[in-house]
Design a protein that fits this description.
The protein has helices spanning about 1-10, 20-30, 50-65, 75-85, 90-105, 120-130, 145-155, 335-350; strands at about 10-20, 35-40, 45-50, 70-75, 110-115, 160-165, 170-175, 190-195, 200-205, 210, 215-220, 225, 230, 235-240, 240-260, 260-280, 280-290, 295-305, 310-330, 355-365, 370-385, 385-390. By secondary structure, the protein is α+β, with helices and mostly antiparallel strands. The strands form 6 sheets. A 5-stranded antiparallel beta sheet has the order 11-9-15-21-20, covered by helices on one side. β13 and β14 form a beta hairpin. The longest helix is centred in the last third of the chain and has 19 residues, at about 335-350. It is elongated.
Length: about 400
């Protein structure tokens, strides 16, 4: 790239000569250390490019060596300047364009917000605008650290904010402030029962009376921790049983992938639309409209206009393409079906073990005439305690005669 710029601004010549003298010319350039590029040769002639400054010395050396070469054409900025030297408006327009591009790089043209969930990006933009930062702000006058601190002090919606200026784009990342809510402790009588069959591994109780011990095998719905107990003076008391009861539980997962399936095939028919987004205003440029038969996939693409990869402007080109497709019967081989089954099984296993501790697993594979079936058994340690409220009967009314 640098060499191309040097050659362009300095100017270059394309030189041609007789093909029979190509070897002598290459030897001359090697002895005199004359740089050249784009050397080409065919049966009749050879050609190359050389800088204007080098050509002055190289042409004299060629004349002394008796090599017949001539200048075929000229390129670069000096040629363009001579050609358009009387068209001052073009140079003024170019200078103004370069100045505008340079000047636009000193202003914020785009703000991107990330990290919002309970709030909208426009809420973040309102907070920034309240502190004097918005699209059009002069970048050298922006003190990012001061801006972030002022927003955190004034806002009751964000716990952390980061503003990164990348070219003319401001990327804002936020962490929303959530109120810490302390849930009132349940006091209504309740038991803990098993939500699945398993063997007890450990107990982590906060309240209640354990009805099982480590090593016991329990069934789904069986009492684990009771909400009824007795005091030393034989009085019956109630409690809201709380805690975790971990047990080893067995899970079964089955995945079956058939050999026959429906395959998507694009028909080549498509329609599209092109739009331009200028400062948030969408302008439709053109599009080939129509009705696609059957199903179609929609592809949306947005390209932000930028200069030199750094200066982004609030202009983007949006393209929407609809591709028509049909489904046709197809057959996959055993290896492909097995690979798909293993992938699906791995996805289900990861989802199941997200909040469980996997101890071991065993998988069996069955191949039939219709497809491939994987049966997986997983032994996991998980919390099986499930709260079950205790309904206390109302005292019977006693009538006095």
């Amino acid at each position: 790239m640098i060499l191309w710029l040097l050659n362009f601004f300095g100017g270059w010549y394309e030189i041609t000569g007789d093909s029979a003298a190509a070897a002598a010319f290459l030897n001359l350039c090697m002895r005199g250390c004359y740089p050249y590029w784009h050397f080409r040769q065919d049966e009749d002639c050879f050609s190359f490019r050389v800088r204007r400054r080098v050509w002055r010395e190289l042409s004299a050396a060629c004349v002394s060596a008796g090599l017949g070469v001539c200048c075929q054409r000229e390129g670069g900025l000096p040629r363009i300047a001579r050609r358009y030297r009387r068209r001052w408006g073009m140079f003024v327009g170019l200078a103004v364009c370069i100045g505008l591009i340079w000047l636009s790089g000193r202003y914020v043209w785009r703000i991107e917000v990330d990290g919002t969930s309970q709030y909208q990006p426009r809420d973040v933009l309102e907070e920034l605008e309240a502190q004097g930062f918005a699209v059009g702000s002069f970048i050298p006058d922006v003190d990012v650290n001061t801006l972030q601190n002022r927003i955190l002090i004034a806002s009751d919606r964000f716990a952390w904010i980061s503003v990164n200026l990348i070219g003319t784009t401001a990327r804002v990342e936020v962490v929303e402030l959530t109120e810490r809510q302390t849930a009132p402790r349940e006091t209504a009588p309740a038991n803990l029962v098993a939500s699945a069959d398993g063997q007890i591994v450990r107990l982590e109780l906060r309240d209640g009376w354990a009805a099982i011990k480590v090593g016991d095998t329990v069934r789904s719905g069986e009492l684990l921790v009771s909400g009824f107990g007795e005091t030393k003076d034989a009085r019956t008391v109630t409690a809201h049983a709380e805690g975790k009861v971990y047990a080893q539980v067995v899970h079964q997962i089955s995945v079956e992938i058939p050999f026959a399936y429906e395959e998507k095939r694009y028909t080549g028919e498509k329609i599209g639309e092109k739009r331009i987004n200028f400062f948030g205003k969408v302008i439709n440029l053109f599009g080939n409209t129509g009705i696609l038969g059957g199903s179609c996939d929609t592809i949306d693409n947005e390209r932000i206009l930028s200069f030199f990869g750094r200066v982004s402007v609030p202009v983007s080109f949006c393209t929407t393409t609809h591709l028509a497709y049909v489904t046709e019967p197809a057959v996959r081989d055993e290896a492909a079906a097995r690979a798909l089954a293993e992938y699906a099984l791995r996805q289900q296993t990861d989802a199941l073990c997200a909040d469980r501790e996997l101890i071991r697993s065993a998988t069996t594979t069955t191949v039939t005439d219709d497809g491939v079936r994987l049966d997986c058994t997983l032994w996991c340690v998980e919390n099986i305690a499930q709260t079950q409220p205790i309904t206390l009967g109302a005292p019977a009314e006693v009538s006095v005669p």
